[in-house]
Design a protein that fits this description.
Elements: E1 13-19, E2 30-36, H1 44-61, E3 69-75, E4 82-83, E5 88-92, H2 104-119, E6 127-129, H3 135-153, H4 159-173, H5 189-194, H6 198-215, H7 217-231, E7 234-236, H8 238-249, H9 253-261, E8 267-275, E9 278-285, E10 303-304, E11 308-309, E12 319-320, E13 324-328, E14 335-336, E15 346-348, H10 351-363, H11 372-387, H12 393-399, H13 409-426, H14 431-452, H15 462-477, H16 492-502, H17 507-518, H18 522-532, H19 538-548, H20 558-565, H21 569-589, H22 594-605, H23 611-621, H24 630-660, H25 668-671, H26 681-693, H27 700-723, H28 736-740, H29 772-786, H30 791-803, H31 805-819, H32 822-844, H33 856-882, H34 890-901
Parallel strand pairs: 2-3, 3-5, 6-7, 8-15
Antiparallel strand pairs: 1-2, 4-5, 8-9, 9-13, 10-12, 11-14
Length: 907
Amino acid sequence: MATYLLAWMIGDLEYIEAYTPGDFSGEPVCCRLYAPIGLATHGQYSLDLAVKSVEYFSRLFDIPYPLPKLDLVAVPDFSPGAMENWGLITFRTHAVLLDEHSTNDRQREIAATVIHEISHQWFGNLVTMDWWSDLWLFEGFATHLAYIVVDELFPAWDVWSEFVTRVQHVLKQDALRTSHPVEVGVANPGEITQIFDEVSYMKGAAVLRMLSGWLGEEQLFKGIRKFMMRYMWGNANTDDLWMTLAEECQADVPEFMRRWTRQTGYPFLTITEIDESTIMVRQSLFLSTGDIREDEDDFIWPVPLALATAEDPTPKNIMMTTKELILKVDTARWYKFNMGQSGFYRVSYPPRALDLLGQTLKNGEETETLKTADRVGLLTDAAALVAAGVSPTSSFLTLLKYFEDEENNLVWTEISLRLQELVAVWLEQPTPVVNAIKEVQRRLFKNIVKRLGWTYPEGEDPAIGNLRALAIRFAGRAADPEDTSAIPPDLLFPVFEIVLKTTTGLEEYEAILAFYRETYSPGEKVVALTVLGYGNSPEMIQRTLAFAMSEEVRNADILSALATLRSSVMGRAELWNFMRQHWDVLYERHFDDLRFVEYFILFSIGMFSSVEKYQEVQDFFANKDTSQCDRILANCLEGIRTRILWLERDREDVEVWLKTNGYLATTAHDEIGVGESGGGGMKAVAAEEDIQYSHYPFSRRTSSLHVRHDLHLSLALLGRSRSGSSVDDGLSPATNDTHHSVPSATSSCSSSPPTVYLEHPEHQHLNHLYHTHEHQHHHQHRHQHHDHGQEHRHQQQHHEHIQHSSYQQQEQHSIAQVYLDESTARLIDERFQLSQQQEQQQKDSGILPETTTAAPGVVMNDLMAFSVAANVATAAAAAAVTGVVPPRAMTLEGEMEMLRLGGEGDY
């Protein structure tokens, strides 16, 4: 047994337990889940997975679990995420516990993590790597095994399509010259931590999946069982596995796999149509910079082509072992390589062939043939090829039109990520150009919102709920001005993100910060901390940095806030300045957690796209000791270079496409300054808004008021749900009376709402919650309070108010109507009258003095919570009936996984 697998755990813990059936070994295994006091019951899901996984792996390897017990332990501050100590697996708390706010996405992540670590009890612990250069084999295989078992336990999840989306991150990393082979030498301890990366885990898993597709899964596991029996209780290396598989499968496995594991990078196939029935396939090294030298392009990979055509959609397994290959294909109809996306390579099609595939998708002819994984593959290959300069960026934007009727959540997630990446690279370009790219995103996603609506029907597939949340979020992030209703409270966290991106006020920021401090849910804490990074004022950004580095935030959670700070120009600049000012302290403080140091570097510099920033980074680290993080630093610098070249190539191409397709005014470039944060000052912002008006009947700023209006209501509810009602009136927000008193968020808003006005002096600030006019006034007044010395901003707001007053007059009633139909207003009025009666009764009985106002703040807070809770009831009731949790926590939790792997702009 290797010493790194030995562990003890001491602390105040409680546990739940279960036993395996023992059907295979004849001896049940005791499985326990330990957690901090009060949290163990949240581990039931993981415990059930452990019991099933132990039995499954015992059968799969034909070897019973070798220990008498298996413990899973939830550790509150555990930055690695999970560790496969033999018989005592440790997990970061939110990686193993579920609570009432957890979502289907979180369940998937926990399942994959738990099963991955349990697979190591055999493949990694019973048979251990010979040296760290073989790390990839055991981590890659555990990742591959986790997907196999999750697919077996939850076939409806379609995890192999999800696998394809995860592989995109390592395809991006491995396209850098600074990447490394899967099978990499390790000469000193400092290199060990650096190889725990996506290449070892996901490329390792991907090439093993490719091997499984070539040999067949049954043959592969025959060889694996032989390997396990031969080397159990000992050590083995990569060649030991290849030789064992070759013996069992009678195939030249070593030659095939060594070319994939000992060579950095991967190929892309260029398809050339020679005539109507003949194509030529040529393989070349794929580099994200696109500047391949002749001496770099002489390597040949064995490539399993998996070719499908319109005539024969069943993939043909053709092994390409030469630089070029001629094939017979009907080029007048669609054809596709890498069917099923099990191959670790990309494909560049001629424009006509790509158009045929797109038309096929648009017409819905082959959605059963071109499954989710293949549609993801088409999108991601096209996006990667434009970034590398193989194709113009306009070709990818054109391809998106074929996906307008797409219904799969994973495909739309990839669309959102690719557009986010485009925005991230173009972020410091002229503001109208950036906004036009966001408009592409908005138009795509608003159609999904219109199609799916806002409510969660009984029995709805959770994947549809996830798609609805994704669409609402990205339509909102792009500031959809056609949405005349505010975002519903069941999407509270996406509202947090949108509002922090569209306001410089601190009320909302403070409320989210308070939410972080009050919630006991580890997942909700991560989400709230992540949202804080979206603040778009200097004060918010600086406070987020200070808070993230304070003792209030666990070390394992710090990166959650830093990841999202880089999504704005201002955030990038502040994060980079912070790192330069505090590098020595950070490096010393977190030296023992080099993964933290690596991600801090990634988040601080990983999205720069200018020559100036490239030089700044080089100059700063020139005299620093980077021996422990040289790989990530080199990757980031190569990523910056990639984006510089991309912008130089396609800046004009993108602007022409945006203008041609009606997303960008033809004079926009000439009228304003450069940069998201207003390189041309506030005049540039004003010009931007004027240009926006030429496209829309009203401004983005007006739309943000709707969102802010909803936020105040949502925050009011949040405060009540956390602290409880101060006045016990027996009315719960979840009661049927409350639920039926308010229409769905999609109800008609044709009639004028009743008047509701709070007259007590202490409640004047609440009137904007019920009157859009009052909210408009309050909004401007707050900006005057917080933005001293910025009269030009107020003049701009006044200009907008006059220019669009007619629209606002039309909209104010419909917005208020969402929250206050007649029955709701009547309930509020009755509740207020009841409180006044109770107050008078208390005065009459001597409980209260005549001069007391019966704590009106308490009463009105309760009233506000009651009125807002009515609007939540529809979504809450649907969740209770269907079991589909409203995705208010899902969206950003899911994004944190994307951000961990690269998400909103990776290296």
